[in-house]
Amino acid sequence: MTVELRDVSSVRGAEVHLSDISLSLERGTLNVLLGPTLSGKTSLMRAMAGLDAPTTGRVLVDGRDVTGIDVRKRSVAMVYQQFINYPSLTIFENIASPLRVQRRPNEEIDRRVRETARLLRLEPYLGRTPLALSGGQQQRTAIARALVKGADLVLLDEPLANLDYKLREELRAELPRIFEISGAIFVYATTEPSEALLLGGRTICMSEGRALQIGDTPTVYHRPETLRVAELFSDPPLNTVAMEKRNGAVAYHGGDSAPANGLYAALPDGPYNIGFRAHQLAVANGATGHHVFPATVALTEIAGSESFVHLQRNGTNWVAVLPGVHEFPPGQAVEATLDPDDLFIFDPEGRLVAAPRGG
Amino acid sequence: MEKIPNQKAWLLVLPVFAIVAFSAVIPLMTVVNYSVQDTFGNNKFFWNGVGWYQELLDPSTELGGRFFASLWRNLAFSGAVLAIQIPLGIIVALAMPREGWGVAFSLVVLALPLLIPWNVVGTIWQIFGRSDIGLMGWGLNRLGFDYNYVANPIDAWLTIIIMDVWHWSSLVALLCYAGLKSIPEAYYQAASIDGASRWAVFTAIQLPKMRHVLVIAILLRFMDSFMIYTEPFVVTGGGPGNSTTFLSIELVKLALGQFDLGKAAAMSIVYMLIIIIVCWVFFTVMTNAGADRKGAGGER
Amino acid sequence: MARIDLVDLAHSYDGGNADPSSFALKPTSMTWRQGGAYALLGPSGCGKTTLLNIISGIVKPSRGKVLFDGRDVMALTTQQRNIAQVFQFPVIYDTMTVGENLAFPLKNRGVGRAEIDARVHEIAKLLDLVPQLDRKASRLTADAKQKISLGRGLVRADVAAVLFDEPLTVIDPALKWELRSKLKVLHRALDLTMIYVTHDQTEALTFADTVVVMHEGSVVQTGTPEELFLRPDHTFVGYFIGSPGMNVLPAEVEGRQARIAGHELSLARSYGGLPPGARIEVGIRPEFVSLAAAAPGLLAARIERIDDLGRSRFAHVRVGDLKIAARVPRGLSLGGNEAGLIFEPAHIHVYADQRRVEGAA
């Protein structure tokens, strides 16, 4: 089965929720919708599910136009950020509820509920009610209910957002395996770049109602087609600087210059925007041929395995992440260095010109 | 983004359309029909155009005089009722317990007056206020107050207003209570940490959060009090004199007492329009004032 | 501004006579110094919010007391304790402008007009709220509203402490970075005692000078982010801090040798008198286990999954029945699923019944 969206737009009053989205989702794939709050992720899911009809454009399932067909007639399941379960029913009955609606024979219900419960490690809790379970187990129950239905399209709208950090980590590690076994089309909305990376599959980068880039998750991460996608897919935030290449040299906006080596070598003369992630910036640890920027430390955050150094360079803020524990006192002058082979170059319109080789 | 329409829904709504057509639309058209004609019985009708309306809206005519007199009475009554019931309802809601057995108890007590039929309420107060055998009337007179709602217009008004307050304040209180219950505990904690006084908590948190239910409460109470008929009819019959003759009572006198169907029809149309316009204006103003917050909120 | 002492504090929501093992907060004593940045870190239900609410006076503890600068505050209300608190979800006074919201705690305390204006302006400037000062607070986005909540928490210069209850939950990742570093700058600029409750280790470690890790109602370790990462005192700390968490492996330890799944590991320190009968485990963070091509002498492992986080890669491997997470060095590429593990002896810790044992040199 495939789900295809063609030029789907959604406008309500003066607000554009979705604008000209075309994409196609294949059976057995995991598709991550990555974008900040209000970027259109939920609207897109609602359009896929058939909860809302797009203002213009069409939704096709297996090539058949289903635009405007009620959600009840489609094979769709949805999991929300809040743990939505029937509080008075046992976990077994919660998971069984979609099958009861379909009036399946008891035997089949029993078998399918137990299979799904095993997959989500809920077997010990089948006799309890949701309120006796932890948040993680409650959300597992909601996911189990979505899976047991055997729906062709399963939509998960930030399903881990309300969970504790560690529970999130656990469930996130298990989800790809669960998705693989089920074989449906999964669409998974998240605001967190690291979640997209860990889930893998394909990523659809969303911003202001547009799908900016669609592709395999590592490809989108390592070759963002636009500056905006690179910004959306960076955590800590992407560092940027404008520059101009002239006569074999690079003049960075704000005063520093360097030879046009590395990725700059093949670049035609002209103005560009440079983007680099926090781990691509080194502090006081440059190698020969790396570009040097004098900067001041604004703040150091120690996160255990790594340290985040917030730098000020000519009025702009950069973040560098260094492995291990490093403490720089605020106000200290340091040299930030950048490997000219390990950065993203965008033209003034924000289109990718060069990216690190290999990735 | 449009919700996907479900065509089956029309089938379910169809019976309602049929009932509304028979119970409201057709009678309404009949009334409109009457309001532009004159009749002397025997089913003979004469075209009168907007004649009745002109007479009705001209205070110098007998009909117009009666209409405006009772219209002012209605407005005064609704104004008084709202001015008492809304603050009283809010105060009661604020005083109600938030948890424990007291919740159920106070909800039941508050709901009791709402369960009593209008004419029974009227009868209760009609007897309660009588100065010969009524507990309140007799008691007041014994205490030295010269209270007699049959003879004194002010007493009659007071009786009707107190009766309405007794009957309907609980509705406002229940609505406000529902509004108060929906305020998250964090707001109260934040306010106490911010050092807010009881009054500041009320104006900065409780009142703004109760806004939506208050709009509904005011609308309901306005419509209801503006259309009041049964209770004053039972208690005072519109008297003494015409002092409690509200539009609805006037209308019945005109239509059933004098059989002036044309005039009565014109009056009911104007009466209905006033209610619709007031409610519409009020509702629009209140929802527009609240709409500006919509833009920022909500996941797309 | 105050030093805060917690003296034998304990709390049960079922009353003080309930079974002590069911207490939401088990007996805890602690001192928080004036001007410090503290984090209370732990999973849901570990008692961290209970502790916070006891300090602010929202919850009356079943036992023990809280001292502000040595003064018992148990009889005081939240308001009298003079603390500020920021909640998980933005609390905004809808009818007021942003400026009025920020001024509210000062106005309620009868602070003079000029001082209010100065203070509100200072806080608004630090939080980048100056352009919105005259706008209705109800019209702003969720994260701007949360900034206002933060601002209201910080606007009073004389508070005993500012308490944050998971304040960044509703904030998008990119803005989290901004607000988090802003909080840290504010802490430096304002010299306030700040206590930050969260389940997110990154938020806790990056914000606080001292992190208090809680588990099932007790404090399991208090330390700097560095200590918690490099020397977790309890296996729970090892698991909860770090992503992925520490590898905790059942082992037999004798002197300077540990045996894991039949493989001998040498330790940097010597462990002589381990308590007999105790459950002995070794803990090592994934950052200090690296994946290498399989070779004799290395612990042989089968790769199950590799997580690519962009800036680092972690392999989840299996050694017999044990699951181990290990760092994948940059540029390493392996043919099949078979690999070897290299452990850094200096970062291997030994635990007896979940508690870290200090080795001898």
Textual characterization of the structure:
The complex is a heterotrimer of chains A (359), B (300) and C (361). Chain A is built from eight helices and 22 strands. Chain A has 359 residues and is α+β, with helices and mostly antiparallel strands. Chain A has two domains: 2-225, P-loop containing nucleotide triphosphate hydrolases (Rossmann fold); 239-354, Nucleic acid-binding proteins (OB fold (Dihydrolipoamide Acetyltransferase, E2P)), CATH 2.40.50.140. In chain A, β17 (291-302) and β18 (306-313) form a beta hairpin. The longest helix of chain A is centred in the middle third of the chain and has 18 residues, at 165-182. The two termini of chain A are 32 Å apart. Chain B has helices at 8-35, 51-57, 62-95, 101-111, 118-128, 135-142, 153-181, 185-193, 198-226, 230-235, 247-257, 261-291; strands spanning 2-3, 37-39, 45-47. Chain B has a two-stranded antiparallel sheet with strand order 2-3. In chain B, a hairpin with a 5-residue loop joins β2 (37-39) and β3 (45-47). Chain C has 361 residues and is of the alpha+beta class. Chain C has two domains: 4-240, P-loop containing nucleotide triphosphate hydrolases (Rossmann fold, 3-Layer(aba) Sandwich), CATH 3.40.50.300; 247-357, OB fold (Dihydrolipoamide Acetyltransferase, E2P), CATH 2.40.50. Helix content of chain C is 24%, strand content 33%. In chain C, the strands form five sheets. A six-stranded mixed β-sheet of chain C has the order 6-7-8-3-9-10, with helices on both faces. In chain C, α3 (98-108) crosses α4 (113-126) and α3 runs parallel beside α5. β4 (52-53) of chain A pairs antiparallel with β1 of chain B. Chain C: InterPro entries: AAA+_ATPase, ABC_transporter-like_ATP-bd, ABC_transpr_FbpC, ABC_transpr_MalK/UgpC-like, Mo/tungstate-bd_C_term_dom, NA-bd_OB-fold, OB_MalK-like, P-loop_NTPase. Chain C: Residues 4-241 form the ABC transporter domain. Chain C: One of its GO terms (molecular function) is ATP binding.
